[in-house]
Amino acid sequence: MEEESQLSATTSRIIPLALPKGTEKVCELCQRRAKLQCNKCRVTFYCDAEHQQADWVGIHGRICQLLIPIRSTTLYSLQGAEHLEMQLKKTELIEICRLEAQRKLSERKHYEALPAAQFCLRCSTDVHGPCTVQVVPAYLLLAEANMGLGNLGLVAELLSQVEWVVLKSPDCGHTLHRQLHRSLGLLHTVTGNLEAALFNFANDIYFASEEYGPESTVTCQGYFLMANVFAKQGKMTITHSLYSTVTQTWHVHLSKLVQAHVQNAQTPCMLLEHSYDKSQHAEVDEMLRTILEFEEKNSTQDSGQIAVVTHCLAMLWFLRGDNFKVSPSLSPLKGFRLTQ
Protein backbone atom coordinates (compact mmCIF):
# COMPACT_ATOMS: atom_id res chain seq x y z
CA MET A 1 0.00 0.00 0.00
CA GLU A 2 2.83 2.39 0.86
CA GLU A 3 4.61 1.65 -2.44
CA GLU A 4 1.39 2.28 -4.36
CA SER A 5 1.00 5.62 -2.55
CA GLN A 6 4.56 6.66 -3.45
CA LEU A 7 4.04 5.65 -7.07
CA SER A 8 0.82 7.66 -7.21
CA ALA A 9 2.60 10.70 -5.75
CA THR A 10 5.37 10.35 -8.32
CA THR A 11 2.93 10.08 -11.20
CA SER A 12 1.14 13.25 -10.10
CA ARG A 13 4.38 15.21 -10.37
CA ILE A 14 5.28 14.24 -13.94
CA ILE A 15 3.64 14.62 -17.32
CA PRO A 16 4.59 13.25 -20.76
CA LEU A 17 6.85 15.62 -22.63
CA ALA A 18 5.51 16.96 -25.91
CA LEU A 19 8.01 19.20 -27.68
CA PRO A 20 8.07 20.80 -31.12
CA LYS A 21 10.23 19.10 -33.73
CA GLY A 22 13.89 20.03 -33.42
CA THR A 23 13.55 20.77 -29.72
CA GLU A 24 15.15 18.40 -27.25
CA LYS A 25 15.44 18.31 -23.46
CA VAL A 26 17.76 16.13 -21.42
CA CYS A 27 17.28 14.20 -18.18
CA GLU A 28 18.26 16.06 -15.02
CA LEU A 29 20.23 13.08 -13.71
CA CYS A 30 21.77 11.25 -16.67
CA GLN A 31 21.62 13.83 -19.48
CA ARG A 32 19.90 11.36 -21.82
CA ARG A 33 16.94 12.40 -23.97
CA ALA A 34 14.03 13.38 -21.73
CA LYS A 35 10.53 11.98 -22.07
CA LEU A 36 8.92 13.38 -18.92
CA GLN A 37 8.50 16.81 -17.39
CA CYS A 38 8.03 17.88 -13.75
CA ASN A 39 4.40 18.93 -13.45
CA LYS A 40 5.14 21.45 -10.68
CA CYS A 41 7.97 23.60 -12.05
CA ARG A 42 7.73 22.52 -15.73
CA VAL A 43 11.37 23.44 -16.24
CA THR A 44 12.93 20.12 -15.19
CA PHE A 45 12.97 16.98 -17.33
CA TYR A 46 13.65 13.25 -16.96
CA CYS A 47 14.23 10.17 -19.08
CA ASP A 48 11.92 8.03 -16.92
CA ALA A 49 9.89 8.00 -13.70
CA GLU A 50 12.68 6.29 -11.75
CA HIS A 51 15.08 9.19 -12.28
CA GLN A 52 12.33 11.68 -11.54
CA GLN A 53 11.63 10.00 -8.21
CA ALA A 54 15.34 9.80 -7.35
CA ASP A 55 15.80 13.49 -8.07
CA TRP A 56 12.67 14.46 -6.13
CA VAL A 57 13.84 12.58 -3.03
CA GLY A 58 17.44 13.69 -3.46
CA ILE A 59 16.99 17.45 -3.98
CA HIS A 60 14.27 18.52 -6.40
CA GLY A 61 11.58 18.48 -3.72
CA ARG A 62 13.56 21.22 -1.93
CA ILE A 63 14.33 23.45 -4.93
CA CYS A 64 11.49 22.78 -7.39
CA GLN A 65 9.93 26.25 -7.26
CA LEU A 66 13.30 27.99 -6.95
CA LEU A 67 14.24 26.71 -10.39
CA ILE A 68 11.37 28.43 -12.21
CA PRO A 69 12.80 31.99 -12.39
CA ILE A 70 16.30 30.67 -13.10
CA ARG A 71 15.44 28.29 -15.91
CA SER A 72 12.73 30.45 -17.40
CA THR A 73 15.22 33.24 -18.12
CA THR A 74 18.52 33.13 -20.00
CA LEU A 75 21.48 35.01 -18.55
CA TYR A 76 22.16 36.53 -21.97
CA SER A 77 18.91 38.48 -21.74
CA LEU A 78 19.81 39.92 -18.33
CA GLN A 79 22.00 42.90 -17.63
CA GLY A 80 23.36 44.79 -14.63
CA ALA A 81 21.35 44.38 -11.43
CA GLU A 82 19.12 41.66 -12.91
CA HIS A 83 22.13 39.54 -13.86
CA LEU A 84 23.60 39.97 -10.36
CA GLU A 85 20.30 39.00 -8.76
CA MET A 86 20.15 35.84 -10.86
CA GLN A 87 23.69 34.91 -9.84
CA LEU A 88 22.74 35.40 -6.18
CA LYS A 89 19.77 33.06 -6.63
CA LYS A 90 22.08 30.43 -8.09
CA THR A 91 24.50 30.92 -5.21
CA GLU A 92 21.62 30.28 -2.81
CA LEU A 93 20.79 27.08 -4.69
CA ILE A 94 24.41 25.94 -4.44
CA GLU A 95 24.33 26.31 -0.65
CA ILE A 96 21.00 24.49 -0.33
CA CYS A 97 22.29 21.59 -2.42
CA ARG A 98 25.60 21.47 -0.56
CA LEU A 99 23.92 21.25 2.83
CA GLU A 100 21.38 18.69 1.61
CA ALA A 101 24.10 16.49 0.12
CA GLN A 102 26.14 16.71 3.33
CA ARG A 103 23.11 15.78 5.42
CA LYS A 104 22.32 12.72 3.33
CA LEU A 105 25.95 11.61 3.28
CA SER A 106 26.09 11.85 7.08
CA GLU A 107 23.07 9.54 7.14
CA ARG A 108 24.85 7.12 4.77
CA LYS A 109 22.23 7.78 2.07
CA HIS A 110 24.76 7.91 -0.74
CA TYR A 111 22.34 7.30 -3.60
CA GLU A 112 20.00 10.03 -2.38
CA ALA A 113 22.94 12.43 -2.03
CA LEU A 114 23.91 12.09 -5.71
CA PRO A 115 21.28 14.45 -7.22
CA ALA A 116 22.12 17.23 -4.75
CA ALA A 117 25.85 16.82 -5.33
CA GLN A 118 25.41 16.73 -9.11
CA PHE A 119 23.26 19.85 -9.17
CA CYS A 120 25.66 21.60 -6.78
CA LEU A 121 28.52 20.90 -9.20
CA ARG A 122 26.59 22.04 -12.29
CA CYS A 123 25.41 25.22 -10.62
CA SER A 124 28.85 25.97 -9.13
CA THR A 125 30.44 25.51 -12.56
CA ASP A 126 27.87 27.79 -14.13
CA VAL A 127 28.44 30.55 -11.58
CA HIS A 128 32.19 30.29 -10.95
CA GLY A 129 33.61 28.46 -13.96
CA PRO A 130 34.71 24.83 -14.46
CA CYS A 131 38.27 24.99 -13.06
CA THR A 132 37.96 27.28 -10.05
CA VAL A 133 38.46 26.63 -6.35
CA GLN A 134 34.77 27.32 -5.74
CA VAL A 135 33.76 24.08 -7.51
CA VAL A 136 36.00 21.89 -5.33
CA PRO A 137 33.44 21.35 -2.49
CA ALA A 138 30.91 20.03 -5.03
CA TYR A 139 33.49 17.65 -6.54
CA LEU A 140 34.33 16.35 -3.06
CA LEU A 141 30.65 15.76 -2.24
CA LEU A 142 30.17 13.89 -5.51
CA ALA A 143 33.29 11.83 -4.83
CA GLU A 144 32.07 10.90 -1.33
CA ALA A 145 28.66 9.85 -2.63
CA ASN A 146 30.21 7.66 -5.33
CA MET A 147 32.69 6.17 -2.86
CA GLY A 148 29.77 5.06 -0.73
CA LEU A 149 28.24 3.43 -3.81
CA GLY A 150 31.48 1.66 -4.71
CA ASN A 151 32.13 3.63 -7.90
CA LEU A 152 35.85 3.85 -7.14
CA GLY A 153 36.97 4.53 -10.72
CA LEU A 154 34.75 7.59 -10.88
CA VAL A 155 35.93 8.68 -7.43
CA ALA A 156 39.54 8.57 -8.63
CA GLU A 157 38.63 10.74 -11.65
CA LEU A 158 36.81 13.29 -9.52
CA LEU A 159 39.63 13.56 -6.98
CA SER A 160 42.17 13.85 -9.78
CA GLN A 161 40.23 16.86 -11.06
CA VAL A 162 40.21 18.34 -7.56
CA GLU A 163 43.98 17.79 -7.21
CA TRP A 164 44.60 19.65 -10.46
CA VAL A 165 42.46 22.62 -9.39
CA VAL A 166 44.04 22.79 -5.94
CA LEU A 167 47.61 22.52 -7.26
CA LYS A 168 47.13 25.41 -9.67
CA SER A 169 45.54 27.57 -6.95
CA PRO A 170 48.35 28.71 -4.60
CA ASP A 171 45.88 30.67 -2.47
CA CYS A 172 43.73 27.59 -1.81
CA GLY A 173 42.93 27.43 1.92
CA HIS A 174 43.85 24.79 4.49
CA THR A 175 40.27 23.49 4.62
CA LEU A 176 40.15 22.38 0.98
CA HIS A 177 43.62 20.82 1.25
CA ARG A 178 42.47 18.92 4.33
CA GLN A 179 39.28 17.70 2.68
CA LEU A 180 41.15 16.60 -0.44
CA HIS A 181 43.76 14.62 1.49
CA ARG A 182 41.07 13.02 3.66
CA SER A 183 39.15 11.92 0.56
CA LEU A 184 42.32 10.58 -1.06
CA GLY A 185 43.20 8.76 2.15
CA LEU A 186 39.79 7.10 2.27
CA LEU A 187 40.05 6.08 -1.39
CA HIS A 188 43.49 4.54 -0.88
CA THR A 189 42.26 2.75 2.24
CA VAL A 190 39.40 1.14 0.31
CA THR A 191 41.65 0.16 -2.59
CA GLY A 192 44.28 -1.31 -0.26
CA ASN A 193 47.08 1.20 -0.88
CA LEU A 194 47.67 1.66 2.83
CA GLU A 195 50.97 3.55 2.66
CA ALA A 196 49.41 6.14 0.35
CA ALA A 197 46.46 6.32 2.73
CA LEU A 198 48.77 7.05 5.68
CA PHE A 199 50.57 9.75 3.67
CA ASN A 200 47.31 11.52 2.87
CA PHE A 201 45.92 11.22 6.40
CA ALA A 202 49.17 12.72 7.71
CA ASN A 203 48.60 15.69 5.39
CA ASP A 204 44.98 15.82 6.53
CA ILE A 205 46.21 16.14 10.13
CA TYR A 206 48.75 18.80 9.19
CA PHE A 207 46.25 21.07 7.40
CA ALA A 208 43.62 20.51 10.11
CA SER A 209 46.16 21.49 12.77
CA GLU A 210 47.03 24.64 10.83
CA GLU A 211 43.36 25.56 10.52
CA TYR A 212 41.86 24.43 13.85
CA GLY A 213 44.77 23.57 16.14
CA PRO A 214 46.39 20.21 17.02
CA GLU A 215 43.87 19.40 19.77
CA SER A 216 40.77 20.15 17.71
CA THR A 217 38.05 17.55 17.24
CA VAL A 218 38.44 18.13 13.50
CA THR A 219 42.14 17.25 13.67
CA CYS A 220 41.53 14.15 15.76
CA GLN A 221 39.31 12.74 13.00
CA GLY A 222 42.49 12.41 10.94
CA TYR A 223 44.17 10.55 13.81
CA PHE A 224 41.20 8.18 13.93
CA LEU A 225 41.38 7.43 10.20
CA MET A 226 45.15 6.90 10.43
CA ALA A 227 44.64 4.54 13.38
CA ASN A 228 42.20 2.49 11.29
CA VAL A 229 44.91 2.01 8.67
CA PHE A 230 47.47 0.93 11.26
CA ALA A 231 44.88 -1.54 12.59
CA LYS A 232 44.62 -3.03 9.09
CA GLN A 233 48.41 -3.38 9.09
CA GLY A 234 48.29 -5.19 12.43
CA LYS A 235 50.20 -2.43 14.26
CA MET A 236 48.08 -2.54 17.40
CA THR A 237 50.35 -0.52 19.70
CA ILE A 238 50.29 2.50 17.36
CA THR A 239 46.55 2.02 16.82
CA HIS A 240 45.91 2.04 20.57
CA SER A 241 48.03 5.17 21.01
CA LEU A 242 46.19 7.10 18.28
CA TYR A 243 42.79 5.93 19.53
CA SER A 244 43.79 7.19 23.00
CA THR A 245 44.56 10.62 21.53
CA VAL A 246 41.16 10.72 19.82
CA THR A 247 39.37 9.59 22.98
CA GLN A 248 41.07 12.16 25.22
CA THR A 249 40.32 14.97 22.76
CA TRP A 250 36.64 14.10 22.67
CA HIS A 251 36.49 13.52 26.43
CA VAL A 252 37.76 17.07 27.08
CA HIS A 253 35.39 18.53 24.50
CA LEU A 254 32.30 16.63 25.66
CA SER A 255 33.06 17.34 29.33
CA LYS A 256 33.04 21.07 28.58
CA LEU A 257 29.74 20.72 26.74
CA VAL A 258 28.14 18.82 29.62
CA GLN A 259 29.36 21.41 32.12
CA ALA A 260 27.98 24.23 30.00
CA HIS A 261 24.77 22.25 29.49
CA VAL A 262 24.24 22.03 33.24
CA GLN A 263 25.02 25.72 33.74
CA ASN A 264 22.66 26.71 30.94
CA ALA A 265 19.83 24.31 31.68
CA GLN A 266 17.27 26.78 30.34
CA THR A 267 18.60 26.48 26.75
CA PRO A 268 20.19 23.01 26.38
CA CYS A 269 19.13 22.46 22.77
CA MET A 270 20.53 25.81 21.66
CA LEU A 271 23.85 24.99 23.31
CA LEU A 272 24.18 21.66 21.54
CA GLU A 273 23.22 22.97 18.12
CA HIS A 274 26.03 25.54 18.31
CA SER A 275 28.53 22.87 19.34
CA TYR A 276 27.99 20.27 16.63
CA ASP A 277 25.08 19.19 14.48
CA LYS A 278 23.20 15.91 14.16
CA SER A 279 25.46 14.60 11.40
CA GLN A 280 28.52 15.12 13.60
CA HIS A 281 26.77 13.30 16.43
CA ALA A 282 26.34 10.23 14.21
CA GLU A 283 29.99 10.34 13.11
CA VAL A 284 31.30 10.73 16.65
CA ASP A 285 29.03 7.96 17.90
CA GLU A 286 30.34 5.59 15.22
CA MET A 287 33.95 6.60 15.89
CA LEU A 288 33.71 6.03 19.64
CA ARG A 289 31.94 2.70 19.15
CA THR A 290 34.76 1.59 16.84
CA ILE A 291 37.37 2.52 19.45
CA LEU A 292 35.42 0.79 22.22
CA GLU A 293 35.12 -2.41 20.18
CA PHE A 294 38.85 -2.35 19.45
CA GLU A 295 39.79 -1.86 23.10
CA GLU A 296 37.42 -4.59 24.32
CA LYS A 297 38.86 -7.09 21.83
CA ASN A 298 42.48 -6.07 22.46
CA SER A 299 44.43 -8.87 24.15
CA THR A 300 45.98 -6.35 26.56
CA GLN A 301 42.81 -4.58 27.61
CA ASP A 302 43.24 -1.07 28.98
CA SER A 303 40.42 -0.71 31.50
CA GLY A 304 41.11 3.00 31.90
CA GLN A 305 40.78 3.60 28.16
CA ILE A 306 37.58 1.55 27.99
CA ALA A 307 36.14 3.61 30.86
CA VAL A 308 36.99 6.92 29.18
CA VAL A 309 35.46 5.83 25.84
CA THR A 310 32.33 4.62 27.62
CA HIS A 311 32.08 7.90 29.50
CA CYS A 312 32.39 9.80 26.19
CA LEU A 313 29.50 7.80 24.72
CA ALA A 314 27.41 8.44 27.83
CA MET A 315 28.05 12.19 27.62
CA LEU A 316 27.30 12.20 23.88
CA TRP A 317 23.98 10.45 24.37
CA PHE A 318 23.12 12.67 27.33
CA LEU A 319 23.70 15.81 25.27
CA ARG A 320 21.49 14.46 22.51
CA GLY A 321 18.71 13.63 25.00
CA ASP A 322 19.08 9.84 24.62
CA ASN A 323 18.90 9.39 28.37
CA PHE A 324 17.67 5.80 28.15
CA LYS A 325 21.10 4.84 26.74
CA VAL A 326 23.11 6.62 29.40
CA SER A 327 22.59 4.41 32.46
CA PRO A 328 23.47 1.07 30.78
CA SER A 329 26.50 2.63 29.13
CA LEU A 330 27.92 3.69 32.49
CA SER A 331 28.22 0.12 33.82
CA PRO A 332 31.95 -0.21 32.92
CA LEU A 333 32.60 2.91 34.99
CA LYS A 334 31.61 1.32 38.32
CA GLY A 335 34.51 1.53 40.72
CA PHE A 336 36.51 3.70 38.35
CA ARG A 337 37.11 7.38 38.97
CA LEU A 338 37.70 9.70 36.02
CA THR A 339 40.01 12.65 36.50
CA GLN A 340 40.15 15.74 34.34
Automatic annotation (TrEMBL):
- Enumerate the PROSITE patterns for this protein: ZF_MYND_1 (PS01360), ZF_MYND_2 (PS50865)
* Domain MYND-type residues, every copy: 27-64
Annotated GO molecular function terms are: zinc ion binding
Q: Which InterPro entries match?
A: Zinc_finger_MYND_domain, Znf_MYND
Keywords from the UniProt entry: Metal-binding, Zinc, Zinc-finger
Name assigned to this protein: MYND-type domain-containing protein
